Amino acid sequence: MSELFDAVDALIASRSPLPPPAERKRLRQAHGLTLDEVAAALQVRRATVSGWEAGKTEPRPPERDAYARMLKQLAQLYPANAPVPPEDTAIPETTPAVAAAPAPSAVEPAQARTAPTGPAAEPANTALCPAAPAAVPRPAVTTRPTSRRPAAKKAALAGTPSGADPRFENGPLAVVDVADGQVLAYCVGGLVLDVPAKSIPALVEWTLREGRFGQPKLSGPGKDADPLLVLTEAACEYYGLPVTLTQQERLAGRLPEGHKVIKQLTRADWQLTKRGFGPWARIYRPAQGSERACVQLCIPSWDALDTRHWADAGQLPPADLARLLGTYAARVMTPRGSTAVTGLELMTALHPPTRASEPDATGKRHSEHNPGSLGKDPVDCAPCEAPDGHPLLVDLPRFHHRTPAEVLVEEAYDWARPLTDAECLRPHLVGIDVNMAFAAGANGLTVGLGAPAHVKNPVFDPKLPGSWLVDLSHVDLSRVKLAKDTWTDLDSELLPSPFTPKGERPTGPAWYATPTVAYAVELGYDVRPVEAYVRHDNGRYLDAWYNRLRDAYLATMADLGVHADLPPADFLAAMDGYRLRDPQLAIVVSAIKATVKGGIGKLRERPRGEGWKPGQPWRALSRPTWRPDIRAAVISRTRINMHRKIVKHAAFTGQYPVAILSDCAVYASDGPSPLDFLPYRDGKPLPGGFKLGINPGLVKREGTQSVLWGEGVREQFNAPELNLARYIKDGTVTDQDTGE
């Protein structure tokens, strides 16, 4: 009988009651829990919990019972109609010392304009997941008001998901436009609001008091995202701003201090951050307790949306631009500036530098260091990690050229070689590109969190992040270990060195990041560092950052019809022309990828004018996120990941790359497809080699050209080692490759 009782208990547990998906998310966020924290507690993947909250999947035993138990306890703590709990008082260093927008309450609600209801209308959904992989349907909006509806009905008419934070019911941002003298705010989901504001100060006030824009914080001790307003050209004219900046203003990156709009803001007691009123202006008032009062403006006609990453987004109609930026905001975060700035700010948003302490004897909480973050104060890098002109190098002679034994040079590959006779007989050159290569390099990487410690004659520890001075010239690629005790012979003349960006074999001691030195050991060679700068305070700081960007990338590619579980041939077919299925979502994909690369690059931002001279500090050095060692570690691991796949492929097939540029490798092939040279067996790829797929770290086809094309352009420019990976995508060569 006890067995029957156990079976009944198990059956009941398999159907443990759960609240609706939106309520699951609300309860988690109300307690300040991240998806990663819940996933770790339930011993599942982050994407699994995200799927439960989105209603895409349902938990199964034994996780279902534990998940239901957690939600039940949270529901007791945070009833559906209870007020939102106050945030802690910790203020991240990277945001201005301003307070949060007061929750709209006693002010008159904003008037809403809504899209027509019926088959042509689409419910608001910042995730923008379509029912089919074809183009995502756009929300229908009216360009002129048809009616005015009370705020109580506005959320439902706009399609606001149940359980969404009521403080931000109109989404993270709005595109402000002017039509026939009427100012309109186009929001995500097709909602259009009347804007009564006649000036920029009034617009800021309206946004904070009535707009209900913003985005919930991404981490428990973090801060909610400030509202973002995107001003069209018509809105700029209406509010007294120039449609475009003059050459002088563009170089300065801002309006002059005497501009009339800046005077208006000053009279209204509003302030601007140090970067002034530029393409990404932040307007705020000093903090009042734990409340924020800050609005960010984005002005596309001032080149706020870089066409390299956002294509023609700045030229889109207001509703389409709101949809595009809203998708990016929902999946990454509300833009804080360029994609590079946003990539860096995302790191801080996921690991805020401070948190609220436990209550002291008087019941008061204090700001304290948040474990796992980079803290609120900058730390000095090691001298070898400092770029030229850094204050640590002020004593060097003015035109001194530092050798590899003096400076850490961890950069992406830029390597090429002449084709062999056998390769010249093959008809095709095929480029394969690693998806989100730098994100994959950051995944699971242990990096330093604090200042370095200098050590003489250290014993190398592959688990200890840092910079190591070591001679790797003895590593011979003609004989390496690919398994624990198995040596493999290779043609080293056809391989780049894994230790230098140009693929040249090192000639003596040089500085390397930990992943590079660890790879030398992996290949079967001893290493004896002379000295090192190591970081004992370390952690996997970039994991949450990687997870967020990976999920954003995969979700958007799935919207475009490219799914993570496609067989190789189907994947290649899905990738062909995927950008044409929804050009706007394709822009989101480009922006997400730029956020990865730009965020990593910002970790070692160089001086940007402002009268800087070598030896003087520059503005970026005051950030705790100015960390050239973390950048070096990510690039090192990315380059090593590429080399490891190349070596595995060469050992198994005898095929070697003819060119590598960052995350793209080019091979001579008998056919035009990657499947013509990648060694798939029964649909399965070579273990440890290249694998076709959309996930970060897997590869896609970059482009195919003929071998005759490759030899022709090299002959045309009289450059036998012209890097063909730079031009393999479309075959266009505009100038000689200088390697810059």
Give keywords.
740 residues, alpha+beta, 8-stranded mixed sheet, 5-stranded antiparallel sheet, 22 helices, 31% helix, globular, disordered C terminus
Helix content: 25-40%
The end-to-end distance, rounded to whole angstroms, is 77 Å
**Main β-sheet, in a few words?**
8 strands, mixed
Structural class: alpha+beta
Regions with pLDDT < 50 over 5+ consecutive residues? 83-163, 736-740
If you compute it from the alpha carbons, what radius of gyration comes out, rounded to the nearest whole angstrom? 27 Å
The average pLDDT score comes to 86
| Helical run tally | 22
How would you sum up the global shape? globular
Number of strands: 23
The largest sheet has its strands arranged as 1-4-3-2-5-8-7-6
Percent strand: 5-15%
Task: Explain the layout of strands and helices.
Elements: H1 2-14, H2 21-30, H3 35-42, H4 46-54, H5 63-77, E1 112-113, H6 151-158, E2 173-179, E3 182-187, E4 192-194, H7 200-211, E5 228-231, H8 233-238, H9 247-252, H10 260-267, E6 271-272, E7 280-284, E8 294-298, H11 307-310, H12 318-331, H13 339-350, E9 354-356, E10 367-369, E11 414-416, H14 421-424, E12 428-434, H15 437-442, E13 447-448, E14 453-456, E15 466-471, E16 479-483, E17 486-489, E18 509-513, H16 514-522, E19 531-534, E20 538-539, H17 543-559, H18 568-575, H19 578-581, H20 583-602, H21 628-653, E21 659-661, E22 664-669, E23 699-706, H22 707-716
Parallel strand pairs: 2-5, 5-8
Antiparallel strand pairs: 1-4, 2-3, 3-4, 6-7, 7-8, 9-10, 11-21, 12-22, 12-23, 13-20, 14-19, 15-18, 15-19, 16-17, 21-22
Helix pairs in contact: 3-4, 12-20, 13-20, 16-21, 17-20
